[in-house]
Amino acid sequence: MHDFINTNVESHQNETVFNLQICETSEFDVSLTKSTSLSFIVSKKNIKIVTKKWINSNQESMIGKSYIIPTKAFHYFLPIISENEDELNIQVQSFGLRGELLLNERLLIDNNKHNSKITTFFETLDENVNKALRGLQLHCM
């Protein structure tokens, strides 16, 4: 297994899903893999954020979190990306209409040759989510 990054967008009539999947192999043991999946599911009523992390495709080792932000409260996402020689640190914050912090999630990724794909996903996240929300609101009128 090799390191890989997949990003995709799934557009459905009632929701749009932005997915990021990362698989990292250990530099010390190539049979050891760490997988991370992150989904932003945008509907007219809410934005659901789902993170899943697991080791060696073992579902028993999976750690998952999910958050739901009502779209009426959502204003924007702010990704904060920092990088050193060992890892990429991504902190995603979401703020409400009155400036309140709705989400503060951190993601650590071992540095690899796919970092530009990851940073592009997060740098365009706010714009993409807002476009999807506008499209869903127009479609549902």
UniProtKB/TrEMBL annotation:
Pfam hit, one: DUF3978
Taxonomic superkingdom: Bacteria
Protein name from the UniProt record: DUF3978 domain-containing protein
